[in-house]
Amino acid sequence: MELLDRARYPWLRDVIAEVPFNTLYARAVLTGDADGWVYVDGQAAASYYVVNVYGMTLLGGEAGDPAYAAALVAYLGGDRGGWVSDQWLQAHPREWDDVLAPLVTAGRAERLERVNFAFDEAVYHRVRRAPVALPVRPTPPDRLWSLPGDVVPTLFWRDRVTAPCTSFSVMDGDVPVAIAFTSFRTPTQLEMGIETLPAYRGRGYAQAACAALIDYCLAEGLEPVWSCRDANHASIALANRLGFRESHRLPYYHFPRGGPAHGGPPAVGTSAATES
């Protein structure tokens, strides 16, 4: 496993564009919008492993190199160079499932499913939304990057000054109690992130904030994108209420956190100097 030189990231963006499911989290690393790095199997880069520090990772390319597969399994089965967050891995093509299966058998990983959705604008416009008691507004800039929670903008964007992080919130006074924000974005797509403070859940606030962000997408000619774990029943129900319909499911590998804090990519078979 070697770290891919950033000068080759544009080439890999084109490769990943052919993957038939949502990979915006990986593309954000390759565009520099999110922190992360890429491991490949050598200069040919026939196999790649894109790491977004939020915890989302993409494994792809050819699965036939035994040395690369062994190094990858050793890395994933260890402390992963000091990851301090859980890792959620998707792979393409399906031949990678055979490479990852021993880690599941050994209890080092859990094989789950991830759901991708397609947005149906006609259904969205037919949905009847009850009014909410609090106003929905663009998230105040001084609040956008200080919100608490597990799914908040500060975890997704490298540069808070230039990040195209459009966001709408349900506001209780000057406090955003439910936020819908741009977690990842391309020229044609906007993936949505949602967080609601626990005391305000179950009141329709998440749906109201999401609807405002969807309206923004439609006005700007962007496709709203939604994905989640199949065990996240609340997210699936909310997606359905907003006009999203399940498009497909795919394996999703959960690697629990482990190791001490780490400030950057661990060197595996090469020097991290290739990242400079």
Structural write-up:
With 276 residues, the chain is α+β, with helices and mostly antiparallel strands. It folds into 2 domains: 2-115 and 253-275, Aminopeptidase; 121-242, Gcn5-related N-acetyltransferase (GNAT) (Aminopeptidase), CATH 3.40.630.30. It is built from 8 helices and 13 strands. The protein has helices at 9-16, 24-31, 66-77, 96-105, 121-126, 141-144, 205-220, 233-241, and strands at residues 2-3, 36-40, 47-52, 56-61, 87-92, 110-119, 136-138, 167-172, 175-185, 189-196, 223-225, 227-229, 244-255. The protein has an 8-stranded mixed sheet with strand order 1-2-3-4-5-13-6-12, sandwiched between helices. A 5-stranded mixed sheet has the order 7-8-9-10-11. A hairpin with a 6-residue loop joins strand 2 (36-40) and strand 3. The protein starts with a strand and ends in a 21-residue tail after the last strand. 38% of the residues are buried. The model is unreliable at 259-263 and 269-276 (pLDDT under 50).
Quick overview of this protein structure:
This protein is α+β, with helices and mostly antiparallel strands and 276 residues long. The chain contains 8 helices and 13 strands.
What's the topology here?
Layout: E1 2-3, H1 9-16, H2 24-31, E2 36-40, E3 47-52, E4 56-61, H3 66-77, E5 87-92, H4 96-105, E6 110-119, H5 121-126, E7 136-138, H6 141-144, E8 167-172, E9 175-185, E10 189-196, H7 205-220, E11 223-225, E12 227-229, H8 233-241, E13 244-255
Parallel strand pairs: 4-5, 10-11
Antiparallel strand pairs: 1-2, 2-3, 3-4, 5-13, 6-12, 6-13, 7-8, 8-9, 9-10
